[in-house]
Design brief:
The protein has 245 residues and is mainly alpha-helical. It is built from twelve helices and no strands. The protein is elongated and about 70 Å long.
Length: 245
């Protein structure tokens, strides 16, 4: 197979992989972030401590994470058909990719949020901040560099899942490598596909690491002061001061 024949196939496969990974990552982040935060809040000593909720939610996340992706795809075929109308193609592959990515990202979020200094949480509570304020002003902003790194890890994992989805008609680079590189013995195309995946993962990892380091350095320079000043307690009135005196 010549390069002129490979090029349109590679371009289409790259577009399909980009769509699959992009949408599934977005869904995984939007759904996984609150789940990960809730796992921390409902744990022992958390702001919303609830052992039953924490155990049930944690067990659901554990079961979803432990299931191999290829089995998850098969198990979700009826649900995927109900959502998209088909079980074949890149659009259908978004459903199992997103569902597989949500618990994966949620556990990473839980780990990142647990690393936040508890003193900051106590300071916000002392200023009258409620749970939502603590999450919005402390937990998420302080964990942001780790959350960026977690998102990078999730994207790379979903790229691997998307390649696996190609083996059962999910489209993308995995499908191209199987249909042409393996079944038609186009070894050159298969190795080009492998190289494209390796380059894409390297670029994503570099970008994610750079963003996480930049946020970490900016946070180290600014410190927690600006965040806490947003919650600064109201100054007592002059009349109140005179009464105390």
């Amino acid at each position: 197979m010549t390069w002129s024949e490979m090029q349109p196939l590679l371009e289409q496969a790259c577009r399909e992989t980009l769509v699959m990974v992009g949408w599934s990552t977005l869904i995984a982040v939007v759904a996984g972030l609150p789940i990960g935060v809730l796992l921390v809040l409902t744990d022992r000593g958390g702001l919303l401590q609830s052992t039953p909720v924490n155990k049930v939610l944690g067990q659901i996340v554990n079961v979803a994470r432990s299931m191999p992706f290829i089995i998850l795809m098969v198990a979700l075929m009826s649900f995927t058909r109900w959502i998209t109308g088909t079980t074949i193609g890149s659009t259908a592959a978004i459903v199992p990719l997103a569902i597989g990515g949500i618990p994966f990202f949620a556990r990473l979020v839980e780990t990142a949020v647990r690393e936040v200094d508890g003193g900051l949480v106590e300071a916000v509570q002392a200023m009258g901040g409620n749970t939502w304020t603590v999450v919005r002003k402390v937990l998420v902003p302080e964990a942001l560099p780790s959350l960026i790194a977690s998102t990078t890890t999730t994207v790379i994992a979903l790229i691997g899942y998307s390649a696996m989805a190609g083996t059962v008609g999910g489209g993308g680079l995995g499908d191209l490598a199987v249909r042409y590189g393996y079944q038609r013995f186009e070894t050159g195309l298969m190795w080009i596909t492998v190289a494209v995946l390796a380059v894409a993962i390297s670029v994503i990892q570099f970008a994610g690491d750079y963003a996480a380091r930049a946020l970490h350095r900016r946070g180290a320079r600014s410190g927690p002061g600006p965040k806490l000043r947003l919650l600064k307690a109201k100054e007592p009135a002059a009349a109140d001061i005179s009464k105390v005196a």
